[in-house]
Specification:
Length: about 450
C-alpha cells in the first residue's frame, strides 16, 4: 500500500536532522570547477554525493566524466508500469569571491537566525539534499523509477555536459525531470520556473601600444589601453541603461509584478543609485538581454606606475533572452565591440563559455502533479510560474535530447540566498518545505502519470 501524504510529511520531518548533517558535510567540500582551483576537491565532492545516493537505496551509482569534472549518476529501476523521474542538481560551487566580506568561513556551515550560511548551502548542495531527502522518505517503497544526475561543472559553463549526456543517453531517459537549481518567489510563496536566460561570457582585450611608456612624456597624444577599454565598454549600454548591442532577442515576460522597492532591497542597491534600463522589471531581468562587466585585468591601483597601459582586458557577460541563440549573440557582441573600438585600438573578443536559454512548457500531468505537491507542502499556497535571469545550460541540452520529457524547475533559493555572493545562505524552514514538496511530487507523479511505453 502506498504511503499517505501525512505519513510522507512526517517521515520527511523525521529525516531532516540527518539531511541537515549531510548537507553540512557537503558544504565543507570546496569543489570549484573553475580552471585555477584544486579539482581534487571536485572529485571529493562527487564521491561524497555517490555515497549519499548509495546509502539512499539506489543500487546503481557511478561517477562519470567526459573530459571535464565528474558527475554522479544514480539509478533505481521503475516498479512495473510506473514512470521514471530524473532528479538533477549540481555539486560544484562558485568561488567565494572577497573572503573578507564573509561573516563566517564559507566552507564551515554556520546556522544563524534560521539560515544556514556557506558557499553552496543553497546553490546547489541543498538541491542535492532535497533529492536525497525524497529518496530517504520512501526508502524501499519508491513508487517511481529514479535517475539522479548530479553535475560537477555547472558553475563553470557545463562544457562537457553535452558529451556526457550523449554517452549516457539511454541511462538518463525519463518521463519527468526535476531540476532543483532555481528558487521560489518569496519565503512562503513557492514557484515553478518556466523560463531562464542563457549566457555568453567573453573576454575583450584592447591593445594600443607595444610597451608601456612614461605617462608624462606621451600622455595627451597617446591613448592608453585602459581608457580605450573603458570607452569601449561604455558603448554597451545607451544612456537609459538598455543594452545597445544590436541583434539580441527581447521578449515579454510573465504577467507578474516585481515591486520596485522589493527588488531594490533584495539587490542591496544603495540609496540614490537608479535602476538601469526601461520596461517592466521582470522583462529587464528575465526576458531581455543584460550586459555586465565582471572583471578587468589591469595594473593594481597600489602598484600602478606613472605609465600608459599598453593592454587591458575585461570579462564581459551577456545574459541572453529565452529564444535567443548563444552563437548568434556572441557574434552580435563581437561585431559591436569591433565596430566601436575607439581610436583604432586593436581589440580581440574571445568566448569563455556559453549556455542556451530556455522556455518550458508548463502544462500537462507532470505540472498538475507538481502544483498539487507544492500547494500541499506550503499549506495551500499554490505555486506561481516565474522566469529567472540566471542560467542552467543543462535544460536546453536535455530538451534537445529528450523532447518528450516534462521538465520541472524547482529549487531552494529565496530572495535572500545571495547565491554567488558572500554570505550565501539557505532558509532552513523553506528547505524543509522543498523536501516535502519533492517527496509529494514523486508520489503524485506515480499516481498521475502514465508510464513510458
Ligand atoms: N542556480 C543557478 C541558476 C539560477 C540563478 C537559478 C538564479 C535561479 C536564479 C545556477 O547554478 C547558475 O548560477 N548558473 C550559472 C550558469 C553559467 C555558469 C553557465 C549562472 O547563471 O551564472
Ligand atoms: Mn545552481
Amino acid at each position: 500500500m502506498s504511503l499517505t501524504e501525512s505519513q510522507l510529511r512526517a517521515t520527511v520531518a523525521a529525516h531532516m536532522p540527518g539531511v541537515r548533517a549531510d548537507l553540512d558535510n557537503l558544504v565543507r567540500i570546496p569543489g570549484i570547477a573553475f580552471e585555477s582551483f584544486d579539482h581534487a576537491e571536485v572529485d571529493r565532492s562527487a564521491e561524497a554525493v555517490a555515497v549519499l545516493l548509495r546509502e539512499a537505496g539506489l543500487p546503481d551509482v557511478k561517477i562519470v566524466r567526459a573530459g571535464g569534472q565528474p558527475a554522479v549518476i544514480g539509478r533505481r529501476p521503475a516498479p512495473e508500469g510506473a514512470p521514471t523521474v530524473l532528479l538533477y542538481a549540481h555539486h560544484d560551487v562558485q568561488p567565494v569571491g572577497d573572503r573578507t566580506a564573509w561573516l563566517t568561513d564559507p566552507f564551515e556551515p554556520t546556522e544563524r537566525d534560521g539560515r544556514l550560511y556557506g558557499r553552496g548551502a543553497a546553490d546547489d548542495k541543498a538541491g542535492i539534499m532535497a533529492h536525497v531527502a525524497a529518496l530517504r522518505a520512501f526508502g524501499d517503497e519508491l513508487p517511481v523509477g529514479v535517475v539522479v544526475f548530479v553535475e560537477g561543472e555547472e558553475e563553470f559553463g557545463s562544457d562537457s555536459l553535452e558529451e556526457l549526456l550523449l554517452l549516457h543517453r539511454s541511462e538518463l531517459a525519463a518521463d519527468v525531470i526535476v531540476i532543483a537549481d532555481s528558487g521560489n518567489w518569496d519565503i512562503g510563496q513557492p514557484a515553478l520556473t518556466t523560463s531562464l536566460r542563457g549566457i555568453v561570457n567573453g573576454f575583450v582585450e584592447v591593445r594600443t601600444l607595444d610597451h608601456a611608456v612614461h605617462s608624462g612624456m606621451f600622455g595627451g597624444a597617446v591613448p592608453d589601453a585602459l581608457t580605450a577599454l573603458c570607452r569601449l565598454l561604455a558603448t554597451l549600454h545607451d544612456d537609459a541603461g538598455d543594452v545597445a548591442v544590436e541583434g539580441l532577442v527581447r521578449r515579454e515576460a510573465a504577467p507578474l509584478d516585481y515591486p520596485v522597492d522589493r527588488f531594490r532591497t533584495e539587490a542591496g542597491l544603495l540609496d540614490g543609485v537608479s535602476l538601469i534600463g526601461t520596461g517592466r522589471l521582470v522583462e529587464r531581468v528575465w526576458t531581455r538581454p543584460a550586459i555586465s562587466v565582471l572583471g578587468v585585468d589591469a595594473p593594481r591601483t597600489t602598484e600602478a606606475p606613472n605609465a600608459l597601459v599598453p593592454v587591458a582586458k575585461a570579462k564581459v557577460s551577456v545574459r541572453i533572452a529565452p529564444g535567443d541563440d548563444p552563437k548568434k549573440a556572441f557574434l552580435a557582441l563581437a561585431t559591436h565591440i569591433e565596430r566601436n573600438a575607439p581610436w583604432g585600438a586593436r581589440v580581440t573578443v574571445t568566448l569563455e563559455h556559453d549556455g542556451a536559454p530556455c522556455v518550458i512548457e508548463s502544462s500537462g500531468p507532470a505540472y498538475d502533479a507538481a502544483r498539487a505537491a507544492f500547494g500541499a507542502a506550503w499549506d495551500g499556497v499554490v505555486p506561481v510560474d516565474i522566469g529567472v535571469g540566471g542560467s542552467i545550460p543543462f535544460i536546453a541540452t536535455f530538451q534537445d535530447l529528450f523532447p518528450e520529457a516534462a521538465i520541472l524547475v524547482t529549487g531552494v533559493e529565496d530572495p535572500d540566498s545571495r547565491a554567488h555572493g558572500p554570505n550565501e545562505s539557505l532558509h532552513l524552514a523553506e528547505f524543509e518545505r522543498v523536501c516535502i514538496a519533492e517527496t509529494l511530487l514523486l508520489a503524485n507523479v506515480a499516481r498521475m502519470l502514465p508510464s513510458r511505453g
